[in-house]
Amino acid sequence: MDYKLKILTEQDLPIIATLCEEASDYMVLATGETNPKKEALDLLTSFPPQKRLEDKTLYGIFDAHNNLIGVLDLIRNYPTTKAWMIGLLLLSPTARGQQIGEQVHAQIVTQIKSEGGTEIRLGILKNNPRAQEFWQRLGYTFQEEKIGTVAGVLMPVYAFKLSL
Protein backbone atom coordinates (compact mmCIF):
# COMPACT_ATOMS: atom_id res chain seq x y z
CA MET A 1 0.00 0.00 0.00
CA ASP A 2 1.29 3.46 -0.89
CA TYR A 3 1.59 5.95 1.94
CA LYS A 4 3.23 9.26 2.71
CA LEU A 5 4.43 10.84 5.94
CA LYS A 6 3.50 14.39 6.89
CA ILE A 7 4.20 16.30 10.10
CA LEU A 8 0.94 16.89 11.96
CA THR A 9 -0.04 20.14 13.68
CA GLU A 10 -2.92 21.41 15.81
CA GLN A 11 -4.88 22.00 12.59
CA ASP A 12 -4.94 18.22 12.18
CA LEU A 13 -6.60 17.57 15.57
CA PRO A 14 -9.96 16.54 14.03
CA ILE A 15 -8.44 13.86 11.79
CA ILE A 16 -6.15 12.65 14.59
CA ALA A 17 -9.22 12.29 16.84
CA THR A 18 -10.96 10.31 14.08
CA LEU A 19 -7.96 7.99 13.84
CA CYS A 20 -7.93 7.57 17.64
CA GLU A 21 -11.59 6.61 17.49
CA GLU A 22 -10.98 4.11 14.67
CA ALA A 23 -8.00 2.62 16.55
CA SER A 24 -9.66 2.76 19.97
CA ASP A 25 -8.77 -0.90 20.56
CA TYR A 26 -5.26 0.25 21.56
CA MET A 27 -6.45 2.74 24.19
CA VAL A 28 -8.96 0.25 25.56
CA LEU A 29 -6.11 -2.27 25.85
CA ALA A 30 -3.91 0.36 27.51
CA THR A 31 -6.32 2.12 29.86
CA GLY A 32 -9.64 0.31 29.68
CA GLU A 33 -11.38 3.29 28.09
CA THR A 34 -11.11 5.68 25.18
CA ASN A 35 -11.40 9.44 24.74
CA PRO A 36 -10.38 10.24 21.13
CA LYS A 37 -10.28 14.05 21.48
CA LYS A 38 -8.06 13.90 24.57
CA GLU A 39 -5.86 11.21 23.00
CA ALA A 40 -5.42 13.33 19.85
CA LEU A 41 -4.38 16.36 21.90
CA ASP A 42 -2.02 14.21 24.00
CA LEU A 43 -0.39 12.84 20.84
CA LEU A 44 0.34 16.38 19.67
CA THR A 45 1.42 17.92 22.96
CA SER A 46 2.77 15.25 25.33
CA PHE A 47 6.50 14.77 25.68
CA PRO A 48 8.93 13.67 28.42
CA PRO A 49 9.57 16.19 31.22
CA GLN A 50 13.23 16.69 30.27
CA LYS A 51 12.39 17.52 26.65
CA ARG A 52 10.88 20.43 24.74
CA LEU A 53 8.09 20.39 22.19
CA GLU A 54 10.71 21.13 19.50
CA ASP A 55 12.24 17.69 20.18
CA LYS A 56 8.98 15.96 19.28
CA THR A 57 7.58 15.17 15.84
CA LEU A 58 4.18 13.62 15.27
CA TYR A 59 4.04 12.15 11.79
CA GLY A 60 0.78 11.39 10.07
CA ILE A 61 0.72 8.34 7.83
CA PHE A 62 -1.56 9.06 4.86
CA ASP A 63 -2.85 6.63 2.23
CA ALA A 64 -2.98 7.30 -1.53
CA HIS A 65 -6.32 9.12 -1.08
CA ASN A 66 -4.81 11.43 1.58
CA ASN A 67 -6.70 9.74 4.44
CA LEU A 68 -4.92 9.59 7.80
CA ILE A 69 -4.33 5.88 8.48
CA GLY A 70 -1.75 6.13 11.26
CA VAL A 71 0.59 8.21 13.39
CA LEU A 72 4.17 7.89 14.54
CA ASP A 73 5.26 9.84 17.64
CA LEU A 74 9.02 10.45 17.65
CA ILE A 75 11.25 12.18 20.24
CA ARG A 76 14.85 13.03 19.34
CA ASN A 77 17.79 12.77 21.77
CA TYR A 78 15.80 10.87 24.37
CA PRO A 79 16.55 9.37 26.81
CA THR A 80 20.15 10.24 25.90
CA THR A 81 21.90 12.18 23.14
CA LYS A 82 21.81 10.25 19.84
CA ALA A 83 18.99 8.02 21.12
CA TRP A 84 15.51 8.48 19.67
CA MET A 85 12.25 7.34 21.23
CA ILE A 86 9.21 6.07 19.39
CA GLY A 87 6.37 7.11 21.66
CA LEU A 88 3.71 5.37 19.59
CA LEU A 89 3.13 3.81 16.20
CA LEU A 90 -0.63 3.55 15.78
CA LEU A 91 -2.37 2.32 12.64
CA SER A 92 -6.07 2.17 11.90
CA PRO A 93 -7.35 -1.42 11.96
CA THR A 94 -7.86 -1.38 8.17
CA ALA A 95 -4.20 -0.43 7.62
CA ARG A 96 -2.75 -3.17 9.83
CA GLY A 97 -1.20 -6.30 8.37
CA GLN A 98 -0.16 -4.59 5.12
CA GLN A 99 3.53 -3.97 5.93
CA ILE A 100 2.90 -0.24 6.43
CA GLY A 101 4.40 -0.28 9.92
CA GLU A 102 7.53 -1.99 8.63
CA GLN A 103 7.85 0.49 5.73
CA VAL A 104 7.35 3.53 7.96
CA HIS A 105 9.90 2.13 10.41
CA ALA A 106 12.49 1.64 7.65
CA GLN A 107 11.96 5.23 6.49
CA ILE A 108 12.31 6.58 10.04
CA VAL A 109 15.47 4.51 10.67
CA THR A 110 17.04 6.08 7.57
CA GLN A 111 16.09 9.56 8.82
CA ILE A 112 17.42 8.91 12.34
CA LYS A 113 20.74 7.59 11.00
CA SER A 114 21.09 10.62 8.71
CA GLU A 115 20.66 12.88 11.76
CA GLY A 116 23.35 11.02 13.75
CA GLY A 117 21.09 8.79 15.83
CA THR A 118 22.64 5.56 17.08
CA GLU A 119 19.68 3.83 18.72
CA ILE A 120 15.90 3.81 18.94
CA ARG A 121 14.02 3.04 22.13
CA LEU A 122 10.38 2.34 22.79
CA GLY A 123 8.03 0.99 25.40
CA ILE A 124 5.55 -1.80 24.75
CA LEU A 125 2.52 -2.46 26.90
CA LYS A 126 3.11 -5.63 28.87
CA ASN A 127 -0.35 -6.86 27.85
CA ASN A 128 0.27 -6.35 24.10
CA PRO A 129 2.06 -9.46 22.79
CA ARG A 130 1.26 -8.60 19.14
CA ALA A 131 3.24 -5.37 19.48
CA GLN A 132 6.10 -7.24 21.16
CA GLU A 133 6.25 -9.67 18.23
CA PHE A 134 6.14 -6.81 15.70
CA TRP A 135 9.02 -4.86 17.25
CA GLN A 136 11.13 -7.97 17.88
CA ARG A 137 10.72 -8.88 14.19
CA LEU A 138 12.24 -5.48 13.38
CA GLY A 139 15.28 -6.26 15.54
CA TYR A 140 14.39 -4.60 18.85
CA THR A 141 15.62 -6.33 22.00
CA PHE A 142 14.14 -6.37 25.49
CA GLN A 143 15.96 -4.15 28.01
CA GLU A 144 13.85 -4.08 31.16
CA GLU A 145 10.37 -3.99 32.62
CA LYS A 146 9.34 -0.63 34.02
CA ILE A 147 6.32 1.53 34.77
CA GLY A 148 5.31 3.83 31.92
CA THR A 149 2.58 6.39 31.38
CA VAL A 150 -0.06 5.90 28.70
CA ALA A 151 -2.73 8.61 28.45
CA GLY A 152 -1.91 9.68 32.00
CA VAL A 153 -2.24 6.15 33.41
CA LEU A 154 0.74 4.34 34.99
CA MET A 155 1.14 0.79 33.75
CA PRO A 156 3.75 -1.93 33.25
CA VAL A 157 5.69 -1.69 30.00
CA TYR A 158 8.63 -3.48 28.46
CA ALA A 159 11.48 -1.21 27.35
CA PHE A 160 13.00 -2.26 24.01
CA LYS A 161 15.99 -0.93 22.07
CA LEU A 162 17.35 -1.12 18.53
CA SER A 163 21.01 -0.26 17.95
CA LEU A 164 21.62 1.38 14.58
UniProtKB/TrEMBL annotation:
PROSITE patterns: GNAT (PS51186)
GO molecular function: acyltransferase activity, transferring groups other than amino-acyl groups
Pfam family, one: Acetyltransf_1
Protein name: N-acetyltransferase domain-containing protein
Lineage: Bacteria, Bacillati, Bacillota, Bacilli, Lactobacillales
Residue ranges crossing the lipid bilayer per the database entry: none
Domain N-acetyltransferase: 3-164
UniProt source species: Enterococcus canintestini
Domain of life: Bacteria
